[in-house]
Amino acid sequence: MTKSCSTEIKFSNGQKIPVELHKVRMVQKLHLKPVEERLAAMEKGGYNTFQLNTKDIFLDMLTDSGTNAMSDNQISSMLRADDAYAGSQSFYRMEEAVREVFGKHWVLPVHQGRAAENIISQAFIKKGDVIPMNYHFTTTKAHMELNGGEVLEIFTDEALKIKSDVPFKGNIDIKKLEGVVEKYGKDNVAFIRMEASTNLIGGQPFSIQNMREVRKVADKYGIMFVLDASLIGENAYFIKKREEEFKNAEISEILLLMCSFADVVYFSSRKVSSTRGGGICTNSEELFMKMRDLVVLFEGFVTYGGMSVREIEAMAVGLYETTDETVISQSPSFIEYAVTELDKLGVPVVTPAGALGCHVDAMDFLPHVPQSEYPAGALAAALFIISGIRGMERGTISSVRDAEGNDVLADVELLRLAFPRRVFTLSQTMYVVDRVNWLYKNRELVGGLVFTDEPAVLRFFNGRLKPTSDWPTKLVAKFKADFGDSL
After folding, report:
1. Rounded CA separation 70/441 (Å)
2. Neighbours of 89 (CB within 10 A)
């Protein structure tokens, strides 16, 4: 066993801060525009941060999907790409990386994670099936429902508690899982899905022990077990840090063990290996054959899957780098710093700190804004106006409407501030903490939102909204009163 290299340094005064275990060799210019211009950009974007133009953004914390910084080894690997439509050597190098890192023999490339969800849903879900999981993701649920399935979330009672010290809030409730099988019958359970780590409830991980218990249920009833491994590296890091049995284990060992419990593993390379693309893998030739022809139909040939061979080369290197603790710990350590500092200031954030981003509890932050007026979306808009920071709403805007046209209110209303790997510095993180804190002190100025253009599917991507009052103007006035001409 090699000693892990810490990403957290203790100063002589006792303070602990995260340290960037990389050096910056290429930079991209950022823009911090005046508050009036940020307000105008927000209005033009329909109060949806997805509709903002990057020229108006200072810190882009919308997502870690496709925004992680690639390493020098990844970029250099792209130069040896084999530009062949079929049988590319780039694919075979990626295939070998999947076999070594995930321990799965049969590999199918796809252009991104949601493409994998489409393939899996079409191959294994029939009308009337249910799919139990620790929590849904937006695109996952959409694909499963389009194929006639029903998502059943069987998270533990601790999962939705904003403030908690439970280390694995992403666990599946085993009693509820058994109850699902008994109620619907094993033949109507398409598969069990676990997501590492739960995106919509704060990036919370699950434990190896929970995976073992899920596997036992799957074996007992003969049900397939599917793992969404998009943030598996971070989940493995939390297992090493929080699960006593694995405190001395290598990340590579934990990754292999996690994947060994699943019959099918799929991933977004935009997350797991810091490049574009994705994949599906399994050790079952039978399961592989059920998906193979769908890849040809929807993605392209089975040795490129809708990706460029340059992306495939970088993916292979990124998968190996996911086993490096200094790589995967970078984002969680900065997230933990932001969560800790905001928590000290009394700002309501999801604890313990998880993967992907710092998650702010919008319902506690804006208790005067009803869920029907989308507090998480309003908070995302307000933060951009006063800071130039683009976060993402993870609440009722990211939900759907029922058959009667009423909003299905989200379990939690979160503003997610994503921390892509190796992208932000400590000073930028401190800026985030300061501006969120200022907004919290002036939270009574923030009002709600209402849709003006609402797509029927995945409305959070392309929907447009407007304020329920003139609260953005008042917020800008207060900002200028406090900061003057400062940006």
Report:
1. 37
2. 15
Is 419 annotated in the active site? no
Quick one: tokens of 202? 């704060």
271 is annotated as an active-site residue: yes
Q: Are 433 and 424 contacting, i.e. CB atoms less than 8 angstroms apart?
A: no
> Catalytic site residue 228?
yes
CATH number of the domain located at residue range(s) 8-64+327-483 in this protein = 3.90.1150.10
Token code pair at residue 134:
């620790």
Catalytic annotation present for 390:
no
Its pTM stands at: 0.93
Asked if 340 contacts 431 with a C-beta cutoff of 8 angstroms, the reply is: no
**Domain extent listing, the chain:** 8-64+327-483, 72-323
Q: What is the average pLDDT score of the chain?
A: 94
pLDDT in tens, 289-322: 999 999 999 999 999 999 999 999 999 999 999 9
Which one from 124, 137, 374, 451 is the annotated catalytic residue?
137
Tell me which of 1.10.3300.10, 3.40.640.10, 3.40.50.720, 3.90.1150.10 is the CATH number of domain 72-323. Answer: 3.40.640.10
Structure tokens given for 396: 């009722």
